[in-house]
Amino acid sequence: MDKLFDYKNASKYAYSIANIRFYETKLLTREKILRMVGAESVSECYRTLEEAGYAVNQGTDTDFSPILRDEQDKVLGIIKHLSMDDRLHALFAIRSDFHNLKVAAKEFYTKDDLTKAYQAEGIFPLRMIRSAVMNEEFKELGDGGKVLRDTFDAILNSYEETGAPKMIDIITDQHMYADLLKRANEIGNSFLTRIFVREIDLINIRSFFRLRYLEKKRMDFTEAYIGGGDFHIDFFLKNYEDDFYTLKSLFKGTEFLDLITDGSTYIEEHNSFLRFERLVSEYFIKYVRSAKWISFGLEPIISYYYAKQKELKVVRMILSGKLNEISFDDIKEGVPDEYI
Asked: Are 62 and 319 within 8 A, CB to CB?
């Protein structure tokens, strides 16, 4: 018998992939997304979401956060059921924990009620994360919560030194991506690891151009930079003071040149980052989709997870736009051409 092919695991993944193909048919199409963009109200958007299986009865015309949390919870449940690897579920679930830690830290300092900003629960119940932050005591989270404890300690130290609210986001993201890369390497799936490397690169590129456009200092980029990507911080800093035209040339020979050329030109001409953000999203979607049709393995499950995350992000953007009476054209500009 051929020992190089694991028929047992192949059979298991065949079941998982068949299920993923079904869930993919439930993703919102671009046509339905554009129908929501053209809707007159949030409640009209809800009708499209209800057709796609969203629990719209949990929301109101002014608060759609429970709907999105419920949908995110469904996605994590699907990953847990189909991946047959608890490490993969934990990897994606802890992203919610980091987000909720970030929101709780902002509540800790501002004393504002940010209930609507929380996401679905990840590895830990939301009440435990909020309690840990508010009481500055993480024992209830056990050893598995050490990475969250370390992140919050770093936030506390930074806030005492700088008093800068932006550091809550920056420090949380830096710790989160370090943890995600570690977990991905432990799983040993090269596609999964490369996803996080590309995510980090795109975040750094976006930060680089945004901070340069706003004429922020080199130190601002140094603070915001996330390690673990293909581009070392020196790549950005050695040309930080150059003009936009020169900055584009830095990326010649890289896979990011087209999105940077198009996006930065739009920034110069329209003083807006909308297209740049959309092009970054489109690039990432294309990369994730590259593994969609692998017959066996974790890749299609990973691809579905990210497709659903993009859907939720776009839905949030549209509903927020409706609530804030943003124009049709501005909302549409943020919808990627390569949607799923």
From this structure: no
Torsion sign over Cα 271, 274, 277, 283? negative
Distance CA 102, CA 152 (A): 9
pTM attached to this predicted model: 0.87
Annotation: CATH topology of 86-189 = V-type ATP synthase subunit C fold (1.20.1690)
Q: For 244-271, what is each residue's pLDDT tens digit? A: 667 777 888 888 888 888 888 888 788 8
pLDDT band at 6 (very low <50, low <70, confident <90, very high): very low
Q: Tell me what the mean pLDDT of segment 322-336 comes to.
A: 84
Kindly tell me if the per-residue pLDDT of 49 is higher than 90. Answer: yes
How far is 307 from 289, CA to CA, in rounded Å? 8
Task: Report the C-alpha gap between 227 and 92 in whole angstroms.
Answer: 19
* Domain regions of the chain by residue span: 86-189
Q: What angle do CA 303, 191, 96 make, to 5 degrees?
A: 55
Contact 67, 49 (CB under 8 A): yes
Q: What are phi and psi of 27, to 5 degrees?
A: -65, 145
Q: Which residues contact 146 (CB under 8 A, 6 or more apart)?
A: 138
The answer to whether 74 and 311 have CB atoms below 8 angstroms apart is: no
Contacts of 22 (CB under 8 A, 6+ apart): none
